[in-house]
Structure formats: C-alpha cells, structure tokens
C-alpha cells in the first residue's frame, strides 16, 4: 500500500521509525526528501496525497502547532478521493473535533505508535469485518463527549484556583451594552447632530461614514477623541450605558434582573467550600457589569485598569486591559484603548502593565475565553508568545458553531479550530450563544 505520514518537523524521529517499519512490511511511504531541487513542492505533495491509500496523521502538540501539517490533514478531511484516514493521537493531547469525528488510535507513548499502526493497517485486508475502522463517527456524539471532557478539565483548574475567565464584548450582548460599531455610530451621531443646516440628502450619517472606512474603526475613534477633547470620556460613558440605564430606570438593579451570562460568571467567581474560585478575570470591555453583578452577591473583588494598583489576596482581581469606564462614577485616567494611537501604544510596548498581565496569565493559568473572536492582533501575538514558551498550558474558547450547510461552512469551521489550536486554544463549540451560560454553570458546579 501507498502511505502518506503527516507529522510536524519536530517529530521527525517518530516519522522515521514508523516509516522504516512500514517499509519493512512492504508498504511504500512517501518521503519529502525525495523531492528534487527545482520541483514544485506543493504539487508533489498534492500528487502524493492523491495517490496514497492511507493517510496517517501523528497528532502531537507539535502537530497541532504546525500550520503545514494541519493543511495536509485538511486536504484529506475535505478531499473527495478514497484515501483512508488514520489519526494517531500521542499522549495527553486533546483531540480537536475535526479529528475526533474520525475513528482514531490513541497511544500513551511514542513507542506504542508502530505496533498500533501496523495492527490497524493489517486489518485493512479484512475491512469487511471491521466496518468502523477508518470511518467517520456521528459528529453530534463526538462533540458531546468532547464537551464533557473539556468541562471536567476546566472544573479541575477551577478547583485548583488556576482558572482565569477572559471576557470579550460577547458577555455584554444581552445587557443592553452597545457593540463597538453601535457605540461609534451613537457617538458620531451626537457629534454631527448640530449640523441642522444641511438637507437630508447632504447630511452626514455615521453609518455611511463607517461603511466608507472599513479599514479600521480605531481610526474613527482617533478623530472622535480629537473632536470631543475633554468631553471624550464622558461622552463614551454616556453612550456606553445609555440603553442599559434606560432599561433599569424604573427597576432597581438586583440579582433577579441579571442576565444568564452574568449569573453564570457570578457562580464561577463564588468561592467554593475549599476556598477555591476563579484566579482572576481579564476583560477587554470598558463596562463594570461584572463588578455590579459580583457586588449584588457580596463577592469581594477589585477592578484593575492601570499600573501600580494593589489588591489583597481575598479580592478577585478584574483586569480591564483596554481601560475602565464605570457607570455611576468618574475615575481619573480610565486609560481607554479606543483609538488607533492608543492601541498601537499598547501593541508596541512589551512592558505595558496590560501586556505583562496577559502574558503572565496566559503562561501560568488555564484560561477560558468567552465572547471573543480571536481577531485582535495584540491578543493573538500574546497568545502565540505564551504558547511558544509553555506548551503544557492549554486554554479554551467557547464559540458558536454555524450550521454546516455547505463545504464552505465545513472549511471555515475547520480552519478556525486549527488556527485556535496553533495559539494554544481548545475550541468548545456550542450551537447558540444562549448555550454559553449553561456551559459556565456546569464548570462552576
């Protein structure tokens, strides 16, 4: 049989030993070193994949960090030829869902790989008696099993006081807090609201301005800061909480009115019998909704948004790494990362307090990311640095999975998970945003 072994270059010894053993059994194993100088590398790989009978993927931490190895795997998973896929998972590597949907072999040590692979390939001669071998599993059952396993690991991190919750805008989506674009639109509309002399056709609208400047909304933030000057922070604060305050105008804020997301975050933050709880919260949001929810339940906490702030060991630290703008009080220097120059300043300063907090947390704790899209270049850079430094510390991100109605949907889902894996993140898929609080509550139990 013709066999293609996909592996990370860091696992060359594993590949060599397995390939030698397969060749001794009479199989033909593709070897990249056989590609001559001047030949089309990609075309040779494609032809080798197409002509192979079996594709073996050696799944290690190195493999999940290798873009090239994962690209080879993607071409097989989404391919149309009849190549049989045999993933071999080595050690305690968590199996991504795009791999787990296939029957895979799991071994504890590198030494077990050869005997396991030879055993499975021998079964191919009697494949009718082994119909499940090399076949796909039911994806729903795979994801359910994966979810339970990940929840157990996150529970263990919480009990050990090593779990950090990392929050993006998605955690505030049900609390009447505007999205980034909505906030910009609302502030821009106020800035241009005095332009009464223009007729309707010539009047500037914030929506049209945003559509004409898709390259970066941070650019608009820079100009708003220039135009509003000393009123900038107050204006942002006003529009940040405008709908939230209108909603609660005639209703006192109490625990019964909290969203399911805030209730779940409260439960994660609540000290357990053994005194364990979240180690910290990192948020990219300006608002103080989490603080308000924790206060309602008498959970001791402290907001950190600038360098030099101290806190006691009994207080749960909430790090506002993009600045802090509480609802009912004014603070000096909220340090908002709202405009392009503020973002660039944070990006280029490796010793900024916010970068150091994130790097240290990503390198030492288990982090659960909620309400983020992984599109922030600075966050991606910090995750990549911490993952390169310590590949023993894996993190998790909860993401809504779009319905897999087309090949494009499948590719997008797989590429996102591969990208997350390369940054040290395991993906927890859910079918709807409303499922996220229930996942958090399972971890908190």
TrEMBL record:
InterPro entries registered for this protein in UniProt: DHS-like_NAD/FAD-binding_dom, TIR_dom, Toll_tir_struct_dom_sf
Domain TIR, residue spans: 1-125
Entry protein name: TIR domain-containing protein
GO annotation terms (biological process): signal transduction
Gene3D superfamilies xref list: Toll/interleukin-1 receptor homology (TIR) domain (3.40.50.10140), TPP-binding domain (3.40.50.1220)
